[in-house]
Amino acid sequence: MRGVRIRGALATLIAAIALTMTTPGSASAHGRLKSSIPAAGAHLASVPAQVRLDFSEAPELTFTMIRLQTADGRAIALTAPAYATDSRRSIVARVAEAMVAGTYVVMWQIAGDDGHPVRGQFDFVVAPGADGIGVVPGAVSGAVPGNSAATPPHDMSAMHHDPVTMPQGDGFGAESPAYVIVRWIGFVALLIVVGAAAFRAFVLRRLRGEGDPEARTWEQAMTIAAEHGAARLGLLAALLLATTLGFRLFAQSYAMHGASGSLDIVLVWQMIRSTTWGAGWMLQLVGVLLAGAGFYGARFASRRTDAPLVQPPDTTPRPSTTLWWGLASAGAVACAFSPALSGHASSAPRFRAFAVLADGVHVLAASSWLGTLAVVLVAGIAASRMQLAERRGMMVRSLITAFSPVALVAAGVATVTGVFAAWLHVGTIPNLWGTRYGITLLIKLGVLGVVTLTGFYNWKFVQPRLGTDEATMKLQRSARVEVAVAVLVLLVTAVLVASPTSMDASM
Asked: Three-state SS string across 316-383, please?
């Protein structure tokens, strides 16, 4: 019956997550159209000289696209979109072709600092007999029918979008289930990459040098084996993270450029070098390369010292191992800060620098808590099995004793930075249940509560009884539950980072 209840609870949770992925939010994601000139639905007594769009945030001009067309689909030439002189949140494109009486449709696409493409359209009417009918407002070099990010004629190769067709990539957009799965896998891999580096930097360093000389010898020998296991696990996670980087790049290009332009190298490169999203992607690429090289080098350097511990081997630290772990740690930190540049933090309407910093610290802290726990289970406890039977339980106890303060501090930092992010993006209490972002956040907090309670149980009731194989098995069971639920937290997070923030609705 207990297994049935657990499966039922998990099914309910997954259904709730799926609901948040399919329920429209109360605000458009990240950037929304606040007003326009001409206004939506306006009946004009004079031909407009320009189209002005006012957004809730400053869009990336490289990916801004405006198309003006008649009701039957004929494009009207516009100049290249440009920031208005009075605000970078406003985009202006001058009309460069004569207009007649009738209905016109304005179609637009923008992307914010986080690279999330947003599209929309509205129409207006030029009344019969309106001033300026049939007169070209201004012949401008470089005007393109229904333009996109147009450029002067001598540099047409730099044009980012097809000037005639508005790209459509909603099938693999930022909020699509396929993209959510890609992000989820990437978050899991990132958790392990940071966890492996934190395991070696904080847990194993605390483990060294404790107890009497003989116990220290055995602990140091186990440390070498645990380092080897952590390096191997970190390397596998880095390879998985590198794989998701490729899928993320394709998904982002598909969402930005549509199916026909998703594999265009020129467009993809412009997207990488011209957006904050691209900077975040590049930062994670560099981080993955550094971490992968570090884990590979650490694993190679320590593999010959990984031996059965009937007679403790020579445990003299190797300088090369320390250097490789330093490289892996630098890569892990870079990877941890990269999501902030491709998520809500990079497009925060206020305190943007603090938002990015807090987001990176949040990822580091959460991974140092839950990712390190996963490495303790897979690499640390596995290394303890190399001990003689009479020492095995005490080695596990020493390992968990070294891990506990790391987990407590990391969980505290993750909580503080998480509260700051919630305050920044939710805005008001009613937005918690009145917007999709708020509802998803509540789901995340609920699942995270299960993780916290499980961790508290391990710390308060399981850890004090450690010292025997039976207690170790009980710890493994409860810690596996903690890690499994943490993976579900990452699934909710993968949905959350693509959900419209509550602040969008109030701007």
From this structure: CCCHHHHHHHHHHHHHHHHHHHHHHHHCHHHHCCCCHHHHHHHHHHHHHHHHHHHHHHHHHHHHHHHH
Q: What is the DSSP string of 16-75?
A: HHHHHHHSPPSS-SS--EEEEESPTT-EEEE--SEEEEEESSPPPGGG-EEEEEETTS-E
E-strand spans in 229-273?
Answer: none
Mean pLDDT computed over 43-59: 88
Q: What letter does residue 80 receive in the DSSP assignment?
A: P
Give tens-digit pLDDT for 380-414.
887 766 655 556 667 777 788 888 889 889 988 98
Local structure of residue 173 (DSSP, 8 states): -
Nearest Cα to 388, choosing from 231, 221, 230, 226?
221
- Residues 75 and 143: their CA atoms lie apart, in Å, by 12
Q: Which H/E stretch holds residue 129?
A: strand 117-131
Distance (Å, whole) CA 134 – CA 448: 63
Provide the CA 162 distance to its chain's centre, in angstroms.
29
Residue 148 pLDDT > 60, yes or no?
no
- Measure the CA–CA gap between 192 and 469, rounded to whole angstroms: 26
In 3-state terms the chain splits into helix, strand, coil percentages (rounded to 5) of: 65, 15, 25
414-451 pLDDT, tens per residue?
Answer: 888 888 887 777 766 776 666 677 777 777 777 777 77
What is the per-residue DSSP string for 279-320?
Answer: HHHHHHHHHHHHHHHHHHHHHHHHGGG---TTS----PPPHH
- 39 CB-near residues (< 8 Å, 6+ apart): 124
Burial 158-189 (b: 16+ CB within 10 A, else e): ebbbbbeebbebeebbbbbeebbebbbbbbbb
Q: Which of 325, 355, 303, 69 is nearest to 198 (CA)?
A: 325
> Residues near 357 by Cβ (< 8 Å), separated by ≥ 6?
340
| Banded pLDDT at 238 (limits 50, 70, 90) | very high
Q: What is the pLDDT of residues 279-312, one digit of tens each?
A: 899 999 999 999 999 999 988 876 544 444 444 4
Helix (H) or strand (E) holding 124: strand 117-131
Query: Quick one: pLDDT band at residue 197, thresholds 50, 70, 90?
Result: very high
Contacts of 178 (CB under 8 A, 6+ apart): 172, 251
**Which of 71-85, 140-154, 260-274, 428-442 is the most confident on average?**
71-85
Are the C-beta atoms of 369 and 450 separated by less than 8 Å? no
CA–CA distance, 72 with 205 (Å, rounded to integer) = 71
Amino acid of residue 328: A
